[in-house]
Amino acid sequence: MATSIEDTYELELVPIAIGGKRLEIYRVENLDCIVNALNQEPGDSTKKFPFWVKVWEASLLLSNHLLKMDLEKKIKILEIGAGMGVTGLFLGVLGYDVTITDYDEDALALIKMNVEHNGLNNVSVRRLDWNNPDLKESFNIICGSELIYNEASIHPIIRLFKTYLRPQGTIFMAHDIKRKYFMQLIGMVKDRFKIETIQTRLRSKDETHRIVIHILNPK
Description:
With 219 residues, the chain is an alpha/beta fold. The chain is built from eight helices and nine strands.
């Protein structure tokens, strides 16, 4: 019998508010247990860490930016590498037609739980393999946070943009300013896109996160 996300992880239901909007979302309760378990295994634990279990600061700031925009209600939005799917969920609260995608089956299961719990009937959840994408539609907006952790992801993401972005569409991507591979991607697409860069900060108890939002429009 297949195991559910609730069988694999201890989950907690927490409120989260962005841009004056509020959701309740299920999340993995104790990240320290995951980190400690990985540290007991041989090899590089960072390569095995399930990055989707964390709400990344970049996703909060990207969500806030998009929620403040006066976007047309009829547009179609694609979130890629969604992880927890925070941005797509909050855009769904505003009534947009949103497709949230990720590759990891556990991430997708958790996103589906949160879509159902919050009654977001306008949000669909799909598995998307960047190397073999199979979506049939195109989108007015493609968005994502902390997408690139290695050089191998750069060309597949660029192909996704080419395949799924509508001619007058816009791409919104957010990442910590320290992500070197992301800046490599920006350098590779600057001839095809007009690029606006917004730098912002998010302060937590322990540190200040410097986040960059890139806005790409086809030339």
